[in-house]
Amino acid sequence: MRTALEAGVVVATILLLAALALGSYQPLIGRSHTAEAFMLTSTAKTDLLVERAQHGSWPDARADIVIDTYGDREQAGRYVARVDLDDGGALSAWFGDDVLADLRGRRLTQRPATGVAEDGLPVIWLCDDRQPPAGTASQAADFTSVDTRLLPATCRGQ
Asked: Contact 128/106 with Cβ under 8 angstroms?
C-alpha cells in the first residue's frame, strides 16, 4: 500500500511540474507565431517604401498590395491568415485558426514612422502602441489586439 501511495505522489508531482512548465512555455510559442507576421510583411514593407518614394505619400488601403496567404499569392504562412494594407502605410497581420488560442482572430499592426524632415527619412516600423522616436512621426493608427506578452521583444520595448 505504501509504494502505491508513493508512486501516486510522484506521478502527481510530475503532472504538476509539467503543467507549470507548459504555462511558462505558452508566451514563447506565441512569440514564435507572431514572428511569422514580421516575415510575411517584410516584402510588403519594401513595396510600400518604393511606392512612397515614387509618389511622395503612403498608398491608401487597396487590394493589389494585400498578401492573402491562403489565396493565389505565393507567400504563404502557417499562422497568419492574411495581411492587410491600412491607411497611412500600416500593415495588419491577421492570425488564423492554426495558431495559439490567445492569437486566434487577433491582429498585429506594424506602422511606419517617418522623419519629420522634408525627405521623410528615416523610416522606422513600429508595432503595438510604441511611440515614434524623437524626430519621427506616424500618421497610421495602431489596431494591434495581440496580448503584449506574446509580442517580440522589439514590440515590448525591450
From this structure: no
Taking residue 38's Cβ as centre, other Cβ atoms within 10 Å add up to: 19
Per the CB < 8 A criterion, the answer to whether 83 and 44 are in contact is yes
At 69-92, the pLDDT tens digits run 455 554 557 888 888 888 888 888
Per-residue pLDDT averaged across 2-11, rounded? 78
Please check whether residue 99 lies inside any domain of the structure.
Answer: yes
With a CB cutoff of 8 Å and minimum separation 6, the contacts of 66 are: 82, 83, 84, 85
Q: Does residue 3 lie within any of the structural domains?
A: no
Question: How high does pLDDT run on average in the chain?
Answer: 79
Name the DSSP class of 95. Answer: E
For position 134, which CATH number holds? 3.30.700.10
Q: Is the pLDDT of residue 63 over 60?
A: no
pTM: 0.75
- Across-strand partners of 124? 113
Q: What is the DSSP letter of 108?
A: E
> 16 in a domain, yes or no?
no
